[in-house]
Specification:
By secondary structure, this protein is mainly alpha-helical. The chain is built from 5 helices and no strands.
Length: 131
């Protein structure tokens, strides 16, 4: 698992978390009608914009997915499971990757892998802490 370094810290945002969450959810709907996608048009599960897979660190993904300011009726495990369904590599590839411009497909696939690994690690940790 990669660790955050000063070179990979995302910029600070002043936007409220709920606003960012709603934009994230909305972007999935926008993608459904898009004919071409780029790395930056993917709604990465982060509080700040993402420009490369190196920015998709587990601590930042957790800060977004598990943030208490959205999805308040759902448990942490439920949030993680829902995110894993959305980001599952086979499902993502079948539904979205064909729309990604060729020169950015490898970066998007790498980014999806980063997200899935982080979510799996977080879900495993939830099981450990629940015992």
């Amino acid at each position: 698992m990669r660790k955050a370094s000063i070179n990979h810290l995302p910029p600070v945002t002043d936007r409220p978390v709920l606003e960012i969450w709603n934009a994230y959810e909305n972007q999935w709907e926008v993608m459904a009608t898009a004919t071409k996608l780029r790395f930056r048009s993917i709604p990465w599960p982060m509080l700040t914009p993402v420009s490369s897979p190196d920015m998709l660190l587990p601590i930042y993904i957790a800060a977004f997915i598990l943030n208490p300011q959205h999805s308040q009726g759902k448990s942490r495990k439920d949030r993680l499971r829902e995110a894993l369904l959305r980001w599952h590599p086979d499902r993502f590839e079948a539904k979205w990757l064909k729309k990604v411009v060729e020169e950015e497909r490898d970066s998007v696939q790498e980014g999806v892998g980063c997200v899935v690994r982080a979510l799996n690690d977080l879900l495993s940790a939830e099981g450990t802490f629940a015992a």
